[in-house]
Amino acid sequence: MDSGAYWERVLRCSKGMSLNRARRTFSIMGRSEDSSDDDLAAFFYPPMQAADIFELNIDIAFGGMDQRKAHMYMREVADRNGWTKATCIHTPMLSGLKGQGGGRMDSFDHKMSKSDPGNAIFVHDTSKQIEKKFRKAFLEVGNPASPVFEIAQHIVLPNNGQLLVEPKPEFGKPSTWNDLESFVSAVSNGEIHPFDAKMAVARGLTEVLSPVVEHFDGNSGLLDAVNKMTGSQ
Questions:
Q1: Distance (Å, rounded) from C-alpha 58 to C-alpha 74?
Q2: d(CA 119, CA 111)
Q3: What's the distance, CA 171 to chain centroid?
Q4: Residue 97 resides in a domain
Q5: Quick one: which of 28, 35, 88, 118 has the most CB atoms within 10 Å?
Q6: Alpha-carbon distance 76 to 95, whole Å?
Q7: Residue 81: pLDDT band with limits 50, 70, 90
Q8: Looking at 37, 67, 91, which one is the last position of a domain?
Protein backbone atom coordinates (compact mmCIF):
# COMPACT_ATOMS: atom_id res chain seq x y z
CA MET A 1 0.00 0.00 0.00
CA ASP A 2 3.01 2.29 0.22
CA SER A 3 3.56 2.10 -3.53
CA GLY A 4 2.50 4.84 -5.88
CA ALA A 5 0.90 2.20 -8.10
CA TYR A 6 -1.58 1.30 -5.37
CA TRP A 7 -2.69 4.88 -4.81
CA GLU A 8 -2.95 5.37 -8.56
CA ARG A 9 -5.33 2.40 -8.52
CA VAL A 10 -7.37 4.02 -5.74
CA LEU A 11 -7.68 7.20 -7.80
CA ARG A 12 -8.76 5.22 -10.85
CA CYS A 13 -11.38 3.47 -8.71
CA SER A 14 -12.63 6.90 -7.62
CA LYS A 15 -12.69 8.57 -11.03
CA GLY A 16 -16.09 8.77 -12.65
CA MET A 17 -17.95 7.71 -9.50
CA SER A 18 -20.39 10.21 -8.02
CA LEU A 19 -20.76 10.87 -4.30
CA ASN A 20 -24.26 9.40 -4.46
CA ARG A 21 -22.85 6.19 -5.96
CA ALA A 22 -20.26 5.97 -3.18
CA ARG A 23 -22.94 6.55 -0.53
CA ARG A 24 -24.79 3.45 -1.67
CA THR A 25 -21.88 1.31 -0.49
CA PHE A 26 -21.86 2.59 3.09
CA SER A 27 -23.52 -0.57 4.42
CA ILE A 28 -19.99 -2.05 4.52
CA MET A 29 -19.34 0.27 7.46
CA GLY A 30 -22.70 -0.25 9.13
CA ARG A 31 -23.87 3.21 8.12
CA SER A 32 -26.87 4.57 6.28
CA GLU A 33 -26.41 6.45 3.02
CA ASP A 34 -27.14 9.85 4.57
CA SER A 35 -24.98 9.53 7.69
CA SER A 36 -21.50 10.39 6.43
CA ASP A 37 -21.60 13.79 4.74
CA ASP A 38 -19.61 15.18 7.66
CA ASP A 39 -16.96 12.45 7.39
CA LEU A 40 -14.81 12.65 4.27
CA ALA A 41 -12.91 9.50 5.23
CA ALA A 42 -16.06 7.44 4.64
CA PHE A 43 -15.88 8.27 0.93
CA PHE A 44 -12.32 6.92 0.69
CA TYR A 45 -13.34 3.46 1.88
CA PRO A 46 -15.22 2.17 -1.24
CA PRO A 47 -12.46 2.95 -3.78
CA MET A 48 -9.82 1.57 -1.40
CA GLN A 49 -11.76 -1.67 -0.93
CA ALA A 50 -12.17 -1.99 -4.70
CA ALA A 51 -8.47 -1.27 -5.22
CA ASP A 52 -7.55 -3.98 -2.70
CA ILE A 53 -9.45 -6.58 -4.71
CA PHE A 54 -7.67 -5.62 -7.92
CA GLU A 55 -4.23 -5.31 -6.30
CA LEU A 56 -4.55 -8.74 -4.69
CA ASN A 57 -5.69 -10.21 -8.02
CA ILE A 58 -8.65 -11.90 -6.33
CA ASP A 59 -10.80 -14.24 -8.42
CA ILE A 60 -13.61 -14.60 -5.86
CA ALA A 61 -14.72 -11.84 -3.47
CA PHE A 62 -16.41 -13.51 -0.51
CA GLY A 63 -18.34 -11.63 2.16
CA GLY A 64 -21.60 -10.97 3.92
CA MET A 65 -24.57 -9.27 2.29
CA ASP A 66 -23.31 -5.96 3.72
CA GLN A 67 -20.46 -6.19 1.18
CA ARG A 68 -22.73 -6.59 -1.86
CA LYS A 69 -23.02 -2.91 -2.80
CA ALA A 70 -19.27 -2.38 -2.42
CA HIS A 71 -18.61 -5.40 -4.61
CA MET A 72 -21.00 -4.10 -7.28
CA TYR A 73 -19.07 -0.81 -7.12
CA MET A 74 -15.89 -2.83 -7.73
CA ARG A 75 -17.42 -4.57 -10.76
CA GLU A 76 -18.49 -1.22 -12.24
CA VAL A 77 -14.93 0.03 -11.82
CA ALA A 78 -13.65 -3.10 -13.57
CA ASP A 79 -15.96 -2.45 -16.54
CA ARG A 80 -14.79 1.16 -16.81
CA ASN A 81 -11.11 0.21 -16.81
CA GLY A 82 -11.16 -3.12 -18.60
CA TRP A 83 -9.95 -4.97 -15.49
CA THR A 84 -10.85 -8.53 -14.53
CA LYS A 85 -14.05 -8.69 -12.47
CA ALA A 86 -14.01 -10.91 -9.42
CA THR A 87 -16.94 -13.26 -8.94
CA CYS A 88 -18.84 -12.23 -5.81
CA ILE A 89 -20.34 -14.63 -3.26
CA HIS A 90 -22.41 -13.25 -0.39
CA THR A 91 -23.69 -14.96 2.75
CA PRO A 92 -26.62 -13.97 4.99
CA MET A 93 -25.81 -11.58 7.81
CA LEU A 94 -26.46 -12.63 11.39
CA SER A 95 -27.97 -10.00 13.65
CA GLY A 96 -26.18 -9.20 16.88
CA LEU A 97 -27.61 -10.99 19.90
CA LYS A 98 -28.99 -7.71 21.24
CA GLY A 99 -31.17 -7.24 18.16
CA GLN A 100 -31.46 -4.28 15.83
CA GLY A 101 -29.58 -1.11 16.65
CA GLY A 102 -32.48 1.10 15.69
CA GLY A 103 -31.14 2.13 12.29
CA ARG A 104 -32.23 1.21 8.79
CA MET A 105 -32.29 -2.50 8.03
CA ASP A 106 -30.16 -2.09 4.91
CA SER A 107 -27.44 -0.32 6.89
CA PHE A 108 -26.62 -3.58 8.70
CA ASP A 109 -26.02 -1.55 11.86
CA HIS A 110 -27.39 -4.48 13.87
CA LYS A 111 -25.02 -7.11 12.51
CA MET A 112 -22.97 -9.35 14.75
CA SER A 113 -19.51 -7.88 15.30
CA LYS A 114 -16.44 -8.82 17.34
CA SER A 115 -16.20 -5.20 18.51
CA ASP A 116 -18.99 -6.01 20.99
CA PRO A 117 -18.21 -9.46 22.47
CA GLY A 118 -21.50 -9.64 24.35
CA ASN A 119 -23.39 -9.10 21.11
CA ALA A 120 -21.58 -11.80 19.13
CA ILE A 121 -20.78 -15.50 19.14
CA PHE A 122 -17.16 -16.43 18.50
CA VAL A 123 -16.32 -19.78 16.93
CA HIS A 124 -14.13 -20.65 19.93
CA ASP A 125 -16.75 -19.77 22.59
CA THR A 126 -17.24 -22.52 25.16
CA SER A 127 -20.64 -23.98 25.98
CA LYS A 128 -20.82 -21.89 29.16
CA GLN A 129 -19.99 -18.70 27.25
CA ILE A 130 -22.60 -19.44 24.60
CA GLU A 131 -25.28 -20.20 27.20
CA LYS A 132 -24.49 -16.98 29.08
CA LYS A 133 -24.78 -14.92 25.90
CA PHE A 134 -28.04 -16.60 24.87
CA ARG A 135 -29.59 -15.94 28.26
CA LYS A 136 -29.30 -12.23 27.45
CA ALA A 137 -30.07 -12.59 23.74
CA PHE A 138 -33.03 -10.75 22.23
CA LEU A 139 -35.90 -12.94 21.05
CA GLU A 140 -38.98 -11.30 19.61
CA VAL A 141 -41.77 -13.84 19.74
CA GLY A 142 -43.17 -14.53 16.28
CA ASN A 143 -40.41 -12.72 14.38
CA PRO A 144 -38.17 -15.15 12.41
CA ALA A 145 -35.66 -12.31 11.96
CA SER A 146 -34.85 -12.29 15.67
CA PRO A 147 -31.18 -13.18 16.31
CA VAL A 148 -31.94 -16.48 18.05
CA PHE A 149 -34.17 -17.65 15.20
CA GLU A 150 -31.62 -16.53 12.59
CA ILE A 151 -28.94 -18.70 14.19
CA ALA A 152 -31.35 -21.61 14.27
CA GLN A 153 -32.19 -21.13 10.58
CA HIS A 154 -28.73 -20.53 9.13
CA ILE A 155 -26.49 -22.61 11.40
CA VAL A 156 -28.14 -25.09 13.75
CA LEU A 157 -30.86 -26.63 11.57
CA PRO A 158 -28.71 -26.99 8.42
CA ASN A 159 -25.93 -28.67 10.41
CA ASN A 160 -27.82 -30.67 13.04
CA GLY A 161 -31.10 -31.25 11.24
CA GLN A 162 -33.13 -30.57 14.38
CA LEU A 163 -33.57 -28.52 17.53
CA LEU A 164 -34.02 -30.32 20.83
CA VAL A 165 -36.02 -28.38 23.42
CA GLU A 166 -35.46 -29.63 26.96
CA PRO A 167 -37.44 -27.66 29.55
CA LYS A 168 -37.27 -28.48 33.23
CA PRO A 169 -39.57 -31.47 33.95
CA GLU A 170 -42.04 -29.33 35.88
CA PHE A 171 -42.47 -27.07 32.83
CA GLY A 172 -43.01 -29.66 30.11
CA LYS A 173 -41.61 -32.56 28.14
CA PRO A 174 -38.68 -32.56 25.69
CA SER A 175 -39.59 -31.96 22.05
CA THR A 176 -37.79 -32.04 18.72
CA TRP A 177 -38.25 -29.53 15.90
CA ASN A 178 -37.05 -30.01 12.33
CA ASP A 179 -37.95 -26.72 10.66
CA LEU A 180 -37.86 -23.07 11.62
CA GLU A 181 -41.48 -22.26 10.81
CA SER A 182 -42.93 -24.79 13.25
CA PHE A 183 -40.34 -23.85 15.89
CA VAL A 184 -41.21 -20.14 15.65
CA SER A 185 -44.92 -20.97 15.70
CA ALA A 186 -44.52 -23.11 18.83
CA VAL A 187 -42.81 -20.23 20.63
CA SER A 188 -45.55 -17.85 19.47
CA ASN A 189 -48.44 -19.99 20.71
CA GLY A 190 -46.82 -20.74 24.06
CA GLU A 191 -46.01 -24.37 23.38
CA ILE A 192 -42.33 -23.52 23.89
CA HIS A 193 -41.23 -20.91 26.43
CA PRO A 194 -38.89 -18.29 24.89
CA PHE A 195 -36.17 -19.14 27.41
CA ASP A 196 -36.33 -22.83 26.51
CA ALA A 197 -36.17 -21.88 22.83
CA LYS A 198 -33.02 -19.84 23.44
CA MET A 199 -31.37 -22.66 25.35
CA ALA A 200 -32.27 -25.16 22.60
CA VAL A 201 -30.55 -22.99 19.99
CA ALA A 202 -27.60 -22.42 22.34
CA ARG A 203 -27.09 -26.17 22.79
CA GLY A 204 -27.41 -26.76 19.06
CA LEU A 205 -24.87 -24.05 18.30
CA THR A 206 -22.50 -25.48 20.91
CA GLU A 207 -22.69 -28.82 19.12
CA VAL A 208 -21.90 -27.22 15.76
CA LEU A 209 -18.91 -25.31 17.14
CA SER A 210 -17.55 -28.12 19.34
CA PRO A 211 -14.87 -29.27 16.81
CA VAL A 212 -13.49 -25.72 16.68
CA VAL A 213 -13.47 -25.39 20.46
CA GLU A 214 -11.69 -28.75 20.76
CA HIS A 215 -9.14 -27.62 18.18
CA PHE A 216 -8.25 -24.54 20.21
CA ASP A 217 -8.23 -26.52 23.45
CA GLY A 218 -5.72 -28.93 21.95
CA ASN A 219 -3.40 -26.23 20.61
CA SER A 220 -2.00 -24.20 23.47
CA GLY A 221 -1.29 -20.60 22.53
CA LEU A 222 -3.25 -20.73 19.27
CA LEU A 223 -6.17 -18.74 20.64
CA ASP A 224 -3.78 -16.09 21.97
CA ALA A 225 -2.30 -15.80 18.49
CA VAL A 226 -5.76 -15.42 16.94
CA ASN A 227 -6.73 -12.76 19.48
CA LYS A 228 -3.52 -10.87 18.81
CA MET A 229 -4.11 -11.00 15.06
CA THR A 230 -7.72 -9.81 15.32
CA GLY A 231 -7.18 -7.33 18.14
CA SER A 232 -9.51 -9.24 20.47
CA GLN A 233 -8.90 -9.68 24.17
A1: 12
A2: 9
A3: 34
A4: no
A5: 28
A6: 29
A7: very high
A8: 91
